[in-house]
Each structure stands twice: as C-alpha cells, then as structure tokens.
Amino acid sequence: MMTAVGCSTQASTSGTESTKKMKQPESFIHIDMVTISSGYAMTKNFHVLKTVDSGVNWTDTLTINSNSYSDGPGLYVLNDKTVYVASYKASEIEIQKSTDAGKSWSKNTMNMQVDDFNSAYGGSLTLSFINQSDGFLLTSGLPAAGLMSKALYRTSDGGNNWAYIGKSENPEQGVGDLSGINGYTTGMTFFNSVTGYITCTYHGQKEISVYKTGNSGKSWSAVAIPLPEKYTSSAYDKEYYADAYQPVVYGKDRKNVKMELYFCHDEERYPYIYSSDNGGTTWHIDGISNLLMKEYCFADNKNGFGLNESGKLYTTNNGGISWSETL
Asked: Helix-strand-coil percent breakdown of the chain, rounded to 5?
C-alpha cells in the first residue's frame, strides 16, 4: 500500500490570465500542444503561455516563482482547458492546476522525498496525467558526484493529494525502487494507470536508456528497442551510445506514441524517429530526422511541434522526419 503524502490546498490569485498578447518568444523549455492550433508552452523564465493560432501569438497565463537551483518546472497539458504545472519550493513541490484554459489556477503543495544528505532533489520535474484524476510526478536530481536521485509519486484525485511510490538514491549502487533506471532523465509518460516509460541520457551504459513499468511504477526494466541496421554491430562499442527522449502520446485512446532516439558513434550523430500504435508494446523505426528535438509533441501522426537544444520552436508535418523553424 502506498503512503499518502501530505499537502495543502489554496486558491491562486496570482495566476489569473493576462489579456496581454505577445509574439512568439525566442526560446522555450517546454511545449505541449493539444491540436495543430492550440496549446501551451513554458519560457526559460518560467512563464506559462497559451496559443490558439499555432504559436503566432501567445497569451501569458501564469508566472512561476521557482527555486533558482531548479532545472525548471514541469508542464503537462491534459486537454485545451486542463493544465498542470509542478515546481520546487524549498523542500516542497508546488502543483498548480487550471481547468479553465489558464484563466485561474488552484495550488497545492506536497512533501518531497530527500536524499541521503537530507537535501531536496532540485533537478527536473516531469508530469504525466492519464485523465482528470490519475497522474504521476517524477523528480530527478541535479548531477553531483555521480548521484542522480529520482523519486516517483502518484495522484488519484487530480493532483490534490500524492502518494509516494519509490525512489533511487544512486543507480550505480542499485539503491532504491527506481535503481534500474540509469541516467539523467529526459521525461516520463504513462499510457494508462499501469504502463509507463522513463527515458534518459547516460553515456556508458550498455542498454539504451528507455525503461518501462507494467505495475504502476513499482519496478522498471530496460526496453528492447529495435536498433537501426547500421548500429546493430556497434551496440557494445565503447564509442557508441544512444540518448533517449520522452515518448509522447496522441489520439484519444492513448495508444499512438512517438519517441526520438539520438544515436551516436564516433563522430556520427543521427536522430531517429520511433513510433508505436499499441501503447509501446512494439516499436518501429519511422526514419532519420533532419534535426534533434529535445522536447516535442504531436497533435496527430503527421503534425507536431518541437524544441531544439536552444529551445527554438520548430514544426513538422511528416511525423518528425523533417522539422522547419517557425517564424
């Protein structure tokens, strides 16, 4: 049985949507579009913006005051009206939620697990909601002396209360419930209440850092992702590695998924687009992409939005095989 994590709730008045519109910012840290036209993004100074015209214009809906040591708050858009944001507050995590397309926000805080040094993780935060009630939150610490602490939480009431599932203090020592996950997390996606994925970058591991749970996050194992033919003979070469980026779900049944893997060998660097139409049970390679997108989302099988390493916004109309910079 999972142990409840304490939290408190209050109304947020500072997140009331502004009527001021702006042109597209130069860079973002998150992008999550619901359709080709409408969706949300987060800037590098932690403003949550909304667009209804494919990113031509943006409306500022929320400013997040997060700890300066954080890698950045997490953003998850369930639908056009329901949006979640998670951010660090000292030894707590604050969850903000809007159910009216950013016009108003509610606010909860939850107690956070700490590492062996009694410090907060302070790295990245990733949210994944399945519906209005069920969701997951992953914290991943800043790298320090090989430590890459992670902790996983779950809510069944829309983010009002959270249960702690498990954590990993140091994957190289195999400590904790998430000890099988090696690397610096790039994202987490749950397809349903049972099946989820965590992806990582980590140079030196033998497996590709794509990990799957089939028991709601209680245990994780590496996924046997099919390799491009040119890399099958070099999979255990010390000059070879593959970075994995977060699977993203599109479609009402949550079975259609896309994911990008960045294969590196010697001086070669190629981003490959993968897809699944059965919720990650099997994967196939769609092809090589023209650009690496470190974060992306898809409205359907063809149309998507992505952010490159600098946070520049791109779009695709062929499933991620080619990306074009937005104006």
From this structure: 0, 45, 50
